[in-house]
């Protein structure tokens, strides 16, 4: 059958190819035709805030600055070169980035892709924070990145580093030379940073956090780490003209394919790297897609998998679209995408905005992220007044794992393996299981294997894995705002050595636990099944959970 659109578009250094059923889907050609009729490419390229309807207009009016970043961010380049020189002149060759979500994921991808070292701190895990504080402190410069200036994780990192610098015997002016703040004009962080004499780089306030890759949030840490960030802007600029056109527009094709597929019930985007040359792009795309689209009971769930042969990808069902990043062979996915990193940032932002319009949501708000944050704040209040967090009682303890879950979910389970089996049984058809690991991302390196193991055991249903609290700024929005078909595995743990958050009445371990319990409250309030496994002995407990998942997956590695 003849299809009504070009299945493959190459423009501005980027290639997007749609294959298989999606090419024949009337929904995709209809979405492209409707977008052209409504002049979406021209209007989006001109930052028209009316594209998502009247309810979204006021937010969109201050959220479309990313469209112009390939040219507008160029003004930052001299400042970045100067800043790098100053940091080098101070003998600071270890760059730490404290930031969450959009404020850390882009620089992590950029520096990993260009092979430049950057220590990313996007956690409240006490062991992970302690390790960062103890690593080359005398040679460390810290970039504190927060758009709002009020994110609790980032604020805690700033306090911890200020304390560590003081403990290292540095005078206030030497500390000030080591802290660089990236924030929006007028944020509380701008004010306190100026008072402390820190170097402040102001970001474009008309760009939301998850679209901020090509703003100061993406560029400052990357440039300090030694990346030639002009290349990112050049690559994005090469793509920009194509995004204004009705034809040969790779962003329109990608956005229409994703949006139309989601409306048709293929609302999970399983993302695998297939030789893109970009490190960790799926994690950045995840926060963009999940936070932008997962709301009002709708959305696209990004599922980042280990490769094109991973469970969930190779055997994806009718509720999923497979996306191969960098594949030469168009058959490697339902959609294949390739191109340089700077261009891909812009491409996916554009495609997400287009898909959001097709799905019928506002791609620039995140109404449900706040809820878990509020719960965490309340729990920290309880901790202060009552001296402990309301953890509840475990249903049972299996060796070094305490198992929490309601009786209806556990259904008589007496072992961790039984409890996991019960949770898998609670994942609805066309639903998903989200693994949320409140662990040490650089020490508990076995944990991500849970995704593939549980996907093998999940009978074709999709399984995601997220480090916490990082995922709260990504899939966390989708879990609470997207379709109510999720089941949740929360893993928490004792830490090896806790440390206080300076100037606050709680420690990092208590903050991390309050975040876990806060999100647990937000999910269970929606009557979604949630199993919490608490590791009483971190290493032994994790090995136990992995062993159980392996047994459930049929014993395969
Ligand atoms: O940069 P911040 O204001 O600290 O925010 C960090 C993150 O927080 C929230 O999750 C927002 O929804 C994200 O878009 C943002 O990237």
UniProtKB/TrEMBL annotation:
Pfam families: PGI
GO function term, MF aspect, one: monosaccharide binding
InterPro entries according to UniProt: G6P_Isomerase, SIS_dom_sf
Gene Ontology terms describing biological process: gluconeogenesis; glucose 6-phosphate metabolic process; glycolytic process
Database matches in PROSITE patterns: P_GLUCOSE_ISOMERASE_3 (PS51463)
EC code(s) of this entry: 5.3.1.9
Pathway: Carbohydrate degradation; glycolysis; D-glyceraldehyde 3-phosphate and glycerone phosphate from D-glucose: step 2/4
Catalytic reaction equation(s): alpha-D-glucose 6-phosphate = beta-D-fructose 6-phosphate
GO CC terms of this entry: cytosol
Record keywords, A-Z: Gluconeogenesis, Glycolysis, Isomerase
Family membership noted in the UniProt record: Belongs to the GPI family.
Name listed for the protein in its UniProt record: Glucose-6-phosphate isomerase
């Amino acid at each position: 059958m003849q299809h009504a659109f070009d299945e493959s578009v190459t423009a501005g250094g980027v290639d997007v190819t749609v294959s298989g059923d999606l090419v024949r889907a009337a929904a995709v050609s209809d979405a492209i035709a409707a977008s052209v009729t409504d002049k979406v490419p021209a209007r989006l390229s001109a930052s028209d805030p009316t594209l998502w309807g009247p309810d979204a207009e006021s937010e969109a009016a201050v959220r479309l600055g990313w469209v112009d970043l390939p040219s507008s961010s160029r003004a930052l380049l001299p400042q970045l070169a100067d800043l790098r020189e100053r940091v080098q002149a101070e003998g600071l060759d270890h760059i730490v980035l404290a930031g969450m979500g959009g404020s850390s994921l882009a620089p992590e991808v950029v520096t990993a892709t260009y092979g430049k070292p950057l220590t990313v701190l996007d956690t409240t895990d006490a062991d992970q924070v302690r390790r960062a504080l103890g690593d080359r402190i005398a040679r460390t410069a810290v970039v504190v990145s927060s758009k709002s200036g009020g994110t609790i994780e980032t604020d805690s990192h700033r306090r911890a580093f200020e304390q560590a610098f003081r403990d290292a015997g540095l005078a206030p002016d030497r500390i000030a030379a080591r802290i660089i703040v990236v924030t929006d004009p007028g944020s509380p962080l701008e004010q306190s940073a100026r008072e402390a004499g820190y170097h402040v780089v102001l970001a474009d306030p008309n760009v939301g956090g998850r679209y901020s890759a090509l703003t100061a949030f993406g560029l400052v840490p990357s440039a300090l780490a030694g990346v030639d960030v002009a290349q990112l802007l050049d690559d994005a600029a090469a793509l920009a003209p194509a995004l204004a056109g009705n034809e040969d527009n790779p962003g329109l094709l990608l956005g229409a394919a994703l949006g139309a597929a989601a409306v048709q019930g293929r609302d999970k985007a399983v993302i695998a790297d297939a030789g893109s040359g970009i490190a960790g792009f799926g994690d950045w795309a995840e926060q963009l897609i999940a936070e932008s689209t997962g709301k009002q009971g709708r959305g696209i769930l990004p599922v980042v998998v280990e490769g094109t042969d991973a469970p969930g990808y190779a055997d994806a069902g009718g509720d999923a679209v497979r996306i191969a990043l960098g594949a030469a062979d168009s058959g490697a996915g339902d959609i294949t995408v390739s191109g340089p990193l700077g261009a891909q940032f812009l491409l996916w932002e554009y495609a997400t905005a287009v898909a959001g319009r097709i799905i019928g949501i506002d791609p620039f708000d995140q109404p449900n992220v706040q809820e878990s944050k509020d719960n965490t704040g309340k729990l920290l209040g309880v901790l202060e007044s009552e001296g402990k967090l309301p953890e509840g009682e475990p249903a049972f303890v299996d060796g070094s794992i305490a198992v929490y879950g309601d009786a209806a979910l556990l259904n008589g389970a007496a072992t961790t393996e039984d409890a996991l089996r019960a949770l898998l049984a609670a994942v609805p058809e066309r639903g998903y299981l989200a693994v949320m690991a409140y662990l040490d991302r650089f020490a508990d390196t076995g944990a991500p294997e849970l995704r593939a193991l549980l996907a093998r055991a999940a009978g074709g249903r999709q399984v995601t894995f997220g480090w916490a609290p990082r995922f709260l700024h990504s899939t966390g929005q989708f879990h609470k705002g997207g379709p109510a078909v999720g089941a949740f595995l929360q893993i928490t743990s004792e830490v090896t050595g806790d440390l206080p958050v300076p100037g606050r009445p709680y420690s990092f371990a208590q903050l991390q636990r309050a975040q876990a319990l806060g999100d647990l409250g937000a999910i269970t309030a929606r009557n979604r099944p949630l199993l919490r496994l608490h590791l009483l002995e971190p290493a032994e407990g994790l090995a136990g959970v992995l062993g159980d998942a392996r047994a459930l997956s049929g014993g395969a590695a």
